[in-house]
Amino acid sequence: MNYTFQFGVALAQLPVLLSAALVTLELAFLAFWGGALIGVAGATAKTYGGPALRRLASAYVVFFTNTPALLQIYFIYYGLPEFGVLIPAFIAVVLGLMLNAGAYLTEIMRAGFISVRRQEVEAAETLGMSLFQMVRYVIVPHIAKTIYPSLANFFILLVLGSSMGAIFSVNELTGTAIDISTENYRWLEMFLLVGVIYIALTFIASVSLALIGRFAFRVKAKVF
Amino acid sequence: MHHLEIASLGCRYGKLEVLRNVSLTVAKGEVVSLIGPSGSGKSTLLRVLMGLTPPTRGEVKIDGETIDYGSSRCVRTVRERMAIVFQQYNLFQNMDVLRNVTIAPVKIKRRPRPEVEADAKRILAKVGLSDKHHAYPDELSGGQQQRVAIARALALKPEILLLDEVTSALDPELVNEVLDTIRGLAADGMTMLIVSHEMAFVREVASRVVMMDNGQVIEEGSPRQIFDAPTSERCREFVGKILRH
Known about the structure:
- The complex is a heterodimer.
- Chain A has helices at about 5-10, 15-50, 50-65, 70-80, 90-115, 120-125, 130-160, 175-185, 185-215.
- Chain A is mainly α.
- Chain A has a single domain (about 5-215), classed as Orthogonal Bundle (MetI-like fold).
- In chain A, helix 2 runs antiparallel to helix 8 (about 175-185), helix 3 packs across helix 5 and helix 6 (about 120-125) packs antiparallel against helix 7.
- Helix content of chain B is about 40%, strand content about 25%.
- Chain B is built from nine helices and ten strands.
- Chain B has helices spanning about 40-50, 70-80, 95-110, 115-125, 140-155, 170-185, 200-205, 225-230, 235-245; strands at about 5-15, 15-25, 30-35, 55-60, 65, 80-85, 160-165, 190-195, 210-215, 215-220.
- The longest helix of chain B has 16 residues, at about 170-185.
- The model of chain B has no long low-confidence stretch (mean pLDDT about 90).
- The interface of A and B includes residues 138, 145 and 217 of A.
């Protein structure tokens, strides 16, 4: 191998890359929480809705889980302007990831919904709880605990998936690395460094999610 | 006056008539035991009383007041006066023992937490679980979970306690710890309506035994009368089958 590594050049870009990493997290967060809201609505429709609502939610899930997220963002970024809707790249990527995440989260949440034990709900009822109290003290904690590991995994996937923003010139981690590499030509060093940052991000995310899960929901997940 | 009065109560699930015509009274401090084959309507009767299954006809009175099971406000007052313990314990899996017992008095009855917790600890001591305040249901044996469920019901200070086959899901060696708890309650004068298949226990603890079959009361009387000298053919047959073992 004739390549001479020059990490100094890449490391000099570390501050820029770290602020880009923040954009990556921002994308993942927005897409996750937006997707979670869609997921709750979708799961509610699929579990408790009438036939029409159920079919609508199913169609949404089938469409968005069976086409690439990249394609979905393409339609939003390049397709919607044809209908006079012009959206900045960042928003388009967030929207695309959000809609895609919403479809997967609908299924995750639905699994949580149907795991609620009828006996616990009946016990809550006979203790005199109102519907609101049952939801707050019994149903939501149960669902949260059940789906927490899947949610945590999905968040990690979103952190990595946000690299699609690079294609739409959003300055998240991957996109920024591509931009810098085209100037300094240190592609390998830059992407090795970016790889390490991604690992650090997901590691920190996994550990903190596992700890939150352990203390808030008694989810027995291994931290390491 | 009778504390609890059930008059020609009927209940159907679709076409299936689970309760046909049940009339029954329970006086204060009385321990009434419901026996009968599976599907005879014993559990449904308790569910109807708690407002979990709507009755299709008949009347329930507590202290002479008729309960309107169609009104959620009325059902709420019923649930303040009666508590039920289920066969499958039905504890809240996401809460520890102390919180399972205190959540209803604190959040629903709005009583101050310190007072409720002191109460709860006293009740837990009574059911023999003083060392388990912070254990979660999945860390307890079935017998322990069932005793927590009894404590949770008692924390609401019910006037009448309904027990629905509370030992049926337990391993044989755990049955006695739960029965002991119920014996203690009976000795304290708690009014109870007990559905049970533990005939020896029923004979010992019940002041009155009610035999049900096919959604109807077949015969009722003292334990001695029901077990030793049943008058109806169906009751004789059932008791004979059970006591032969």
